[in-house]
Amino acid sequence: HSTDSGDPGISAFPEGDNIFSWVGTIKGCAATVYDGLSYKLSMKFPTEYPFKPPTIKFDTPCFHQKEWHC
């Protein structure tokens, strides 16, 4: 059920039968400090989508040099 993004390190699919609630995974880029890491995301699409944007949240804690967490 994964959505083919053209990048094998990215996937997303509906959470159960709810088409407005998706889960996704992003794998860290090779040869970076993120290599070997995997991040889970949750995406909530409003009923007005695509006229209103989805809410996307990193469920896996992550580090970015300009943020303490994301």
Could you walk me through the main structural features you see in this protein, from its secondary elements to its overall organization?
It is built from no helices and four strands. It is mostly beta strands and 70 residues long.
Produce a short descriptive summary:
By secondary structure, this protein is mostly beta strands. The protein has strands at 10-15, 18-27, 38-44, 55-58. The radius of gyration is 14 Å and the shape is elongated.
Alpha-beta content class: mainly beta
The percentage helix is under 10%
Radius of gyration: 14 Å
Coarse morphology: elongated
- Count of helical stretches: 0
Strand content: 35-45%
| N-to-C CA distance | 27 Å
User: Order of strands across the biggest sheet?
Assistant: 1-2-3-4
Name the helix and strand elements from N-terminus to C-terminus, one letter apiece: EEEE
**Uncertain regions spanning at least 5 consecutive residues:** none
Major sheet attributes: 4 strands, antiparallel
Strand element count:
4
Mean pLDDT, all residues: 85
Structure keywords:
0% helix; elongated; 70 residues; 4 strands; mainly beta; four-stranded antiparallel sheet
Describe the secondary-structure layout:
Elements: E1 10-15, E2 18-27, E3 38-44, E4 55-58
Antiparallel strand pairs: 1-2, 2-3, 3-4
